[in-house]
Structure formats: structure tokens, C-alpha cells
Amino acid sequence: MxxxxxxxxxxxxxxxxxxxxxxxxxxxxxxxGPSIDARTTRKKAKKKxxxxxxxxxxxxxxxxKGNTEAVxxxxxxxxxxxxxxxxxxxxxxxxxxxxxxxxRCPTSDDADAAGVWLVDRVRRLEPDLQVDYAVEPAxxxxxxxxxx
Length: 148
What we know:
Elements: H1 4-10, E1 34-37, H2 42-47, E2 55-58, H3 59-65, H4 86-96, E3 99-105, H5 108-125, E4 132-138, E5 141-147
Antiparallel strand pairs: 1-2, 3-5, 4-5
């Protein structure tokens, strides 16, 4: 197990679940205080082929996740329809590469805004994974696609 300070520095003192800043000086007993999240349960980690690193999380976010799979939510201010599950898609891209359809958007501007946010978020989730986005017209809507 790594130290809280090392993991915090690696993650830029941002919670990997909610993407909000984590105060390194706050008590670890405070709900918004720092904690280490293994990102998955040990049982599930044994089934996965690649190692899952420890990540920085707010104590409340980590406790709320509990012993279940984590969810990284799309922000409410983005206009996306049928959004993909971010962590599942990122894990597939990290292991297999290729392309993932991530969401549909009503306008190309909405798709661009979602693409910029998504690439930034994925780069913080998986720093070694190089991704880019594309917006493709699709029957009156726009498809947001991530690719490695």
C-alpha cells in the first residue's frame, strides 16, 4: 500500500470519483478528507488481468462507493443522450485500444463540449492512456467517439 501523500501527489489532490479537489490538510475522519481507494474490491481485482492502482478519494466518496463498482458520473451541465459507462469504456480502451461510442448529442457544439470534458477526465483517470475524441454526424444527431 502506498502512502496517502504519494497517491495524493500522483492524483493532483483530486478525488478520482467526483473529480473535486481534496484538501491534504483536512482530517481523514472528515467526510471531505482524503482517503485511499483501491478502486475495486480485492475479489474483483484478482479476476482482472491488469493491476488496478490505488487512487485518492474523499472519505465520503470512498465510503459511498463501498464494496461496489465505482461510477464516474457525467456532469449535469453537458447535454448528452444515452451516455456510456465511463469506467467500463475506459477499461476496454486501456486493454484493447480502438474506438468507443460514448454518447449522442443534439448539436455538434454539445458533442465538442462533452468531448473536451471527457478527454480531460479520462486523462486523469488513466494517465498513461492517450485518448482523443471525434464528433461524427449520425442521423440528425452527433455521435461522440473516444479513440486510442
